Structures are given as C-alpha cells and as structure tokens.
Amino acid sequence: MKNILAFFSFFILLSNFSFAQIGIGTNVVDGSAILEIESTDKGVLLPRMTEAEKLAIVSPATGLTIYQTDSVNGFYYFNGSGWNPLAGVQPAIEKTSNDGYRFVGSPRAVGNNAIDFSLVEGVPSGTYGARNNNAVAIGNGVLASNTNTVAIGYLNTSSGDRSVSFGSNNTSSALNSTSIGYDNNAAGTGSLAAGTNNQAFQDNSVALGMDNIASGNANVSIGTNNTTSSIDAISIGENNQNIGFYSVVIGRDNNNETENTYMLGEGLFTFGGTPNQTVVGFYNSPTGPGTFSVGNGTSDTSRSTALSVSSTGTIIAPDLDISEITDNKALITKEYADATYAATTSNAVSFTTVSSFGPNFSPYNNGWQIPRFYIQDGRVYLEGLARRSNAVFVSGETILTLPTGFRPQSNRIFTAGQSGNQLRVDVYPDGRVVYINGTDGGNDYVSLDNVSFRID
C-alpha cells in the first residue's frame, strides 16, 4: 500500500513541474518566463571559450549563446548561419583614456588621438591597429604604426610617418608614401604606388597601373609592366624598360639604355654609352650618339632605320624612295646628291641653244655667247647676246621664243642689259621673250643674262 501511495505522489509532483515555472532566488516568477533568476550579488555564467573553440561547435542550434574570450571578446549568438556579437554585426565603439577610439573589448593599444576600427578576423597573427599618435586604422588586418599614418581596407600597412595605404595588401613604408589599390608597395620618401602590384622603391618615385616598377629617384612608370631604374626617368605605356638618366620612353616594348634620350614608338632600342638620342617609329636599328632617328622595322628580328640625323648634321636615309621627290626643296640624302649632282660630264647642266628668234633678232656671234637656256631645280636660266638687225628697238617685238617645258606660269618682268643701259624684257606663258622699253643708246644688242624664272 505504501509503495502505491509513493508512486502516485511522484506522478502528481512530476505533472506539476511539467506545467510550472522555475524561480531561483525568488518565489514569484514572472508570468512570461519559464525561468527567473534573482540575485544582488551573483550572476549567471554562460559557457566561456576561445574563437577557435566556438567555431568547432558541431551543428550549433539557432540561438546558442557563448562568451568568447579572445580576439574581439564578448557574447556571441548563432543566428542559424553564423556567429554574431550580441551587440550587433560590429562591436560598439569606445573612447580610450588617451583620446583615441576603438571597438569595445579590443585588447589592442591605441595611440594618442588615434582611431582603431580594425578587426583581425581570419588574418595571420601579427601586430595590427592604430598603434601611434594621430593614426587611423580601419578594416581587417590593417596596421598604422607611425605618427599621422592611415591604413584602410584589408591587410594594409602604413609604417612611414604620414604614410597612407588604401585597398588590399598595400604597404607604405616611407615618409609621405602612398599606396592605393591591390598589392602595391610605396617604399621611397614621397613615393606613390597605385593600381595592382606596382612598386615605387625610391624617393619621389611613381608607379601607376599594373606590374610597374619605379626603382630610381624621381622615376615614373605608368601603364602595364614598365620599369624605370635610373634618375629622373619616365616610362609610359606597356612593357617598356628605361635605365637612362633623364630619359623618357613612351609606347610599348621599347628599351632605352642611354641618358638624355627621348623615345616614342614600338620596339625601339638604344645601346648603352650613346646618349642624347631622339628615336621614333618602329623597331629601329640603333645608331651613333647625338642622333635623331626614325625606325621603320617590323619586328625585333627585322630592324631598320628610315632616317638618321647625326649630331654633326649628317643625314642618312638608306630606304628613301628618290622617285617620290618632286619638290625641288625636298630633303634628299648625301648619297643621292653625290650621284645626281656631282660635277661630272654626264651630270653637268644641259644647255639648249635658242633656235626660235623674232623676225629682227639673231645670235650676236663674233665670239660672244650665243643665246641659250637651261633648267635646274625647277628654274629656267637664260644667257647670251641677241643682235637686232638695226639699233631701233620697237616695243612689243619678240626677241626669241622658249619651247614648252621652259615657260613661266604667268607673265614675268626682267631687266635686260646693254652697255650702261637697261631694257625691260617680259617673258610670257606662251614662251615669248619680248622687248618692252628702255634706253637702247644706239646699241643693237640685248643681254639675257639676268633673265631667270621658276616654271612652277
């Protein structure tokens, strides 16, 4: 009988607990709570663990709560997909005793007047944060370790005084250096590296774009895969190499080894020890010092130079097409001039004797130059003495007529000569050489030596 009573008593008590509330430290439990704990000198202690231990929990239930003891410590709860601090997605901010700012609970020291809004989630172990006066560190795994430095983004480091780094994996390690983008390194005083994987190693150097290197003082590399490694050198474009002091290279696949050189084009090249060059065009054949040259090659194995001017003024143009020179003032090579204008019998000026005189004129003869003409560089020259049948010159009469190809484009006026006298002689587009006026002084001749005109 006693056993039966004990069984029923236990069953009734168990049923009451199934529907009742639990109070610890209090007899009155709030109606909305299944458990109420009341104390004025003790608290509730939840499970404490490291971040690694937290992440190792297998299949955590939604709402599971723990206290994390390392990294950014504090209460964390599992929301069904990940762990979050109870204060929100990001920790709260607090002001430090030295007028700095950091996330609440951050164990890192902060410099005077510094701002440290950095995290160390999933980054390699090391020193992070705003560790010096007036420094700013914002992001994950960032370090601003010198005075007045700024590091913003992911795994950026600013260690030079007044240095700045923005983006990801950038380093600014010198005074006033700046790195912006991804994986850039500004290591020289006042240097700038911006873009992707650029290196500015020396003072006042600049590397902008992708895979550029500026390794000399005041060097500039802009574009893709350019390198400058001297002093005050500039490379702009793609795949250019410039090791010449005070030189500029613009284009692609160019290589300069000389100082004071300017290069513009593709595939151009200069030898070391030949300074003061200006090279333009494509795939030139390197020439001597102090030259201006134009390359007209097609590849690295097929180089040629269309035009080269030396420091002494010598012009070399081995590939110039002489047949296309039609202007008498066109630039020609010394080789062509020697071959064309040399003072030899075969290349001497060719004279043509006048064969068409006016009715009252003829050659003077008696040992005097017979009237003749020639053309040189697009200009017609007349010379010789013409005699009139008597000394009475008549205005408008024809002295002689020039053949086609030796005539001016428009009317021309000239002064013809006699002994101490001057005569006006006109030449017309139809080839007529005509006496107009002047004092004949009783002379029966006229000199044509001053008559010369262009035919174009």
From TrEMBL:
Residues 1-20 form the signal peptide. It comes from the Bacteria. One of its GO terms (cellular component) is outer membrane. Residues 144-169, 186-210 form the Trimeric autotransporter adhesin YadA-like head domain. Pfam families: YadA_head (PF05658). InterPro entries: Adhesin_Head_dom, Serralysin-like_metalloprot_C. Keywords: Signal. This is Trimeric autotransporter adhesin YadA-like head domain-containing protein.
